[in-house]
Amino acid sequence: AASLTGCSGSPSSNETSAQETVADVSLDDVLKDIKEAYGENYVPDSAVDEQMLSDIIGLSPDLCESYVAEMPMISTFVETFIGVQAKDGKGDDVEAALNAYRDRLVGDTMQYPMNIAKIQASQVVRHGDYIFFVMLGAPSDASMEEGDEAALESAAENNQIAIDIIDGYFK
After folding, report:
1. Smallest Cα–Cα separation from 2: which of 42, 71, 49, 37?
2. How buried is residue 23: exposed, middle or buried, by Cβ count under 10 Å (0-12/13-18/19+)?
3. Cα 140 to Cα 150: distance, rounded to the nearest angstrom
4. What is the number of other CB atoms lying within 10 angstroms of the CB of residue 112?
5. Model confidence over 81-96: pLDDT tens digits?
6. Which residues sit opposite 84 in a β-bridge?
């Protein structure tokens, strides 16, 4: 997976303020652990470049200290993982951009029916300057046959796998 670091070079210092005790977390490590946890069920297969991050996601690369982002090449799939280390003081902006992206997806009535549960189960998670958009919750085939509610529950459970991994980095 391609990893893009710093939109303007490396951070000048690694000092953290009193309220921000999060150590440096490697977004590459987080992504690697998530991929291992999902195995062949990890669908995103292409790295998102800065242009796509800006045009599709609506997140300005200028807000990012570093990020990893992957989504599928085939538009019938929506599974997406985005991890951002926001530049100092830009966490709120990054979180707002990722929430706005999620809201657009949820509000898009032109989605394939098989993707609705995945989109509804998606989450934006924030730990200090680290903000994640996780849409990896593919519902099981059995739950899809049971109906929307079961599919959403299954998708949420599958999405939680990544959330738990992310949370584990910030304990």
Report:
1. 49
2. exposed
3. 9
4. 12
5. 999 999 999 999 999 9
6. 67, 131
Query: Tens of pLDDT along 111-161?
Result: 888 899 999 999 999 999 999 999 999 999 999 999 999 999 999 999 999
Nearest-CA neighbor of 67 among 98, 89, 37, 45? 98
52 Cβ contact partners less than 8 Å away, ≥ 6 residues apart: 69
Q: Give the 3-state secondary structure of residue 66.
A: strand
Question: Which residue is associated with the tokens 């990054």?
Answer: 94
Cα separation, 168 vs 157, in Å, equals: 17
Residue 8: what are its φ and ψ, rounded to 5°? -135, 40
Q: What is the C-alpha to C-alpha distance for residues 94 and 117, in angstroms, rounded to an integer?
A: 24
